[in-house]
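Re: the 424-residue chain
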Amino acid sequence: MQLNHEFKGFPTGHVPVALSDVGALGWQVLRGDLPLPLAVLKQSALAHNLAWMRDFCAQRGLDIAPHGKTTMSPELYARQIAAGAWGISFATVYQAALGARHGVGRLIIANQVLQAADLDGLASLLRTYPRLQAFFLVDSLAQVDAIEAWHRSHGDGVVFTVLLEHGIAGKRTGCRTREQALALARRVKASPALRLAGIECYEGSLASCRHEEDRAGVAALMARLQETAADCEREDLFECDEVLLTAGGSAIFDLVAEHLQAHLQRPFRRVLRSGCYLTHDRLQYRRHMLCVGERLKLTETLRPALEVWSVVQSCPEPGLALLSMGKRDVSYDLDLPVPVWRAEGGRDGPGTVHAVPGHWTITALNDQHAYLKYDPTSLPAQQPQVGQLVGSGISHPCTTFDKWRWMPVVDDDYRVVDAVSIHF
């Protein structure tokens, strides 16, 4: 893949560069070698988070198939697989195709697949990559009917491997009762188009950071998963060598790890699907990880790896500065970004990075501007200045990644050492 002037964050007028060559160019973000705003990934935090989650899973006998929809970055998938990921999860056939094209050998589409175009696409992937293991979710007889109608019209013999989804009343998809789940499993066993390989659920909507409430909710959901798995084994409804039991968003995955169990005679594999652990953040998932740390009595968890750098472009009145980033550049669906670092940039050499004063806060975003409020009575050295660089932490990595087509990977001095592509 080549980067050029059509990619936001790439220097206009620079010759095209292969993504794999970016790290050798000697670029330095704080020296002004790349235009701002710019989203960057910190190499040290990525490495720490990969090792942390690898060890978390290994200590509990779990596997992980992290959600690839978080980043949509093949280079980051490769890092996760190299760190021991069993596979990669996705939300759509389009996303899964990106993974398959870039060497992901096992994938979970943690969503219902039923449209003819998507079934066409998944069947094409399975023919193109004969060794690919692909799973998707079923939660209704109507979905099975739609898949079988597609199967009859095509007659090419493809059989899809599926996971039965348990859901939560009032929340997302999934069977609401044990009886509904068992009836669906029997229907799948009778279908010429499907084979049942496991049970799935998503507990993320239960997360509240109220420990006992979260623990009880996850335990109840996992108990339903265990009961259905036992029902399916008793009736010989699984058609696989190894049953998959999978759950796990990025908020209360420690409770999933505690309760994701089964009492089965046949082999089974327990798979988490947490995705945001890789880059973490400074707000939404930081709050949840503080709760995880409290429950597990940990002194260190994950580190924020994703930052968006911008420049102070105007200080039009006391107490207000405008930054050169906005809704086109950074997530805002859950929280506004938070200013973390400041530096004096320029061609004379990058300045030292310092923490921003505590009274700096981002209060609003426009498409291309961030409103930075500060105490106008503070010392001049504590006030933002036109031309100053500001590095902001983000909340919810998914909706920052989708605003970029590439990101440089930087060392702790903001020298560019690598780059990743993004394919939303």
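The radius of gyration is 24 Å.
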